[in-house]
From TrEMBL:
Its cofactor is pyridoxal 5'-phosphate. One of its GO terms (molecular function) is branched-chain-amino-acid transaminase activity. This is Probable branched-chain-amino-acid aminotransferase. InterPro entries: Aminotrans_IV, Aminotrans_IV_CS, Aminotransferase-like, BCAT-like_C, BCAT-like_N, Class-IV_PLP-Dep_Aminotrnsfr. The keyword Amino-acid biosynthesis applies. It comes from Roseibium polysiphoniae. It catalyses: L-valine + 2-oxoglutarate = 3-methyl-2-oxobutanoate + L-glutamate; L-leucine + 2-oxoglutarate = 4-methyl-2-oxopentanoate + L-glutamate; L-isoleucine + 2-oxoglutarate = (S)-3-methyl-2-oxopentanoate + L-glutamate. Belongs to the class-IV pyridoxal-phosphate-dependent aminotransferase family. Its EC number is 2.6.1.42.
Length: 284
């Protein structure tokens, strides 16, 4: 099938591979009522797994679904899943909820039809030396009035995909997506930071982008290590003049940017420190 090694738990049973789970009448397949989260297993650890499991429940509630799993139950499933893989693998851990049936007027999901699966698969992380190039997107993040931006919902990602495809078409690895006012929000699936004169700056959560679990963790680790981290409104121009830029996200943790538009950047000491602190925290 082309899928890497994958295990999925649905309704009490583990399935190897990519088992079918929705039909053409499933509300989620038809009208987009699905939420997920993404956590990581690597080097024997699953950092902030409890927060990722809690967030998928919060995302479900934000979409009007009814979470059926406790955080502790999900975490146990994660341990069961990782034991099925060779311990040197780097795994992506994806709990999901979706609505099976439609509710009033078809458009709304029936919360009582909420279903859950835990899908875990082999997905190598980019290594220590990895870096990305970024470009300004012509697409924008929706506000809370336009979309449920507080949820990690599948229905938000086609917009991020447009930004990614545009960036790749211009020869870049990722896109800087702004909010409706034109201030920097995030990358297509990661949060963004910059460093200038030894201080760290990152967009302040304003309801237009995901306030990432890795973002919050890295802010705390940097502050505890004595760095000034400013969460504030940031224009793209400030990124063009940054000493360093880096991104955070569960998938690859902390990754430096090595080019913004036509300007080359050296992966710098603060990004490297943030990555080091994250690894220390993960293994503590
Ligand atoms: N923004 C978006 C749109 C994302 O998909 C992700 C990945 N979950 C992030 C930011 C980073 O969030 P986290 O650190 O919680 O993975």
């Amino acid at each position: 099938s082309g899928w890497s090694e994958t295990w999925t738990w649905i309704d009490g049973t583990w399935h190897e591979g990519n088992p079918p789970m929705m039909g053409p009448r499933s509300h989620a397949a038809w009208l987009g009522s699905s939420v997920f989260d993404g956590a990581r297993f690597f080097e024997g650890v699953m950092p902030d797994l409890d927060l990722h499991c809690q967030r998928v429940n919060d995302s479900a509630v934000a979409l009007g679904l009814k979470p059926t799993m406790q955080v502790g139950e999900m975490m146990e499933l994660c341990s069961d899943a990782t034991a099925k893989f060779s311990p040197d693998k780097q795994l992506y851990i994806k709990p999901m909820y979706w609505a099976e049936a439609d509710g009033p007027g078809v458009i709304a999901a029936d919360p009582d039809s909420t279903r859950f699966c835990m899908c875990v698969f082999d997905a190598p992380m980019s290594g220590k030396g990895a870096a990305n190039s970024i470009t300004l997107s012509s697409f924008r993040r929706p506000t809370m009035e336009c979309m449920p931006v507080n949820a990690k919902a599948g229905c938000l990602y086609p917009n991020n995909a447009r930004a990614m495809v545009e960036a790749k078409g211009k020869g870049f690895d990722n896109a800087v997506v702004c909010d409706m006012l034109g201030n920097v929000a995030e990358l297509t699936s990661a949060n963004i930071f910059m460093a200038k004169a030894g201080e760290v700056h990152t967009p302040v959560p304003n309801g237009t982008f995901l306030n990432g679990i890795t973002r919050q963790r890295v802010i705390k680790l940097l502050r505890d290590a004595g760095y000034n981290v400013h969460e504030r409104t940031l224009g793209f121009d400030e990124f063009l003049e940054a000493d360093e830029i880096f991104s955070t996200g569960n998938y690859n943790k902390v990754v430096p940017v090595n080019r913004i538009e036509t300007r080359d950047l050296q992966p710098g000491p603060i990004a490297s420190k943030a990555r080091e602190l994250y690894w220390e925290f993960s293994h503590a």
